Amino acid sequence: MTKKNIFVVEDEEDILELLRYNLVREGYNVSAAVNGEDAVKAIIRKPPDLILLDLMLPGMAGLDVCRTLKKDPKTAGIPIIMVTAKGGEGDVVTGLELGAGDYIPKPFSMKVLIARVRAMLRRKQEQPADKDAMVRIHDLVIDPARHEVLIKGRAVEMTCSEFGILHLLAGHPGRVMTREQIVDAVRGEDYAVTDRAVDVQVVGIRKKLGARADYLETVRGVGYRFKE
Q1: What is the pLDDT of residues 154-204, one digit of tens each?
Q2: Which domain holds residue 70?
Q3: How far is CA 66 from CA 7, 77, 178, 227, in A?
Q4: Are residues 98 and 197 both part of a single domain?
Q5: Are residue 115 and residue 20 in the same domain, yes or no?
Q6: What interhelical angle do 110-125 and 13-25 show, nearest 10?
């Protein structure tokens, strides 16, 4: 099996070496840069399979690195996991809006980071969720063709927006989505128009899912994701 290439952008030497050591031990090829400018040049020259991007960088900030790479067709499809200090919710939301796929707060668990890397690489290999594709998770079925949600074969009534939000998140398991991304993607006739409205509709979805309510995870200060 061909080794996956991971590019780490991190200016703290001890963290960089810790990441490099553990990623190599897991079987990945690792390249790195300690500042944004060098990272962008190296990534465009030789696109990796995944990027671990620190947001607090000297010179070109991590968000600018993300913005630049997502605008370039050659690198736009590379998954990015942001690494950020706790409390940087505004930067996290901005990064996700720019196209980053996930984030990990500092200080982080290496086991969690490796698991997120594996999950992101696995999702990259999978076909992107089609807006009309049926989604099955255990005994939960979401069928957009029939606009129907079934649990153990029983129909669960949902509003247009509730259905759209559930299908969107379930079609991208593990991916964090901000409230703004959810609003942009879900366009039912009663679709949410405010952060608070999205939260209210998620509460409604959870009630209707019953024992499966924990499939929908709240990412504090950011948005939601469907449990992988």
Answers
A1: 999 888 888 889 998 998 888 888 888 888 777 644 454 566 778 888 999
A2: 5-125
A3: 13, 11, 17, 25
A4: no
A5: yes
A6: 60
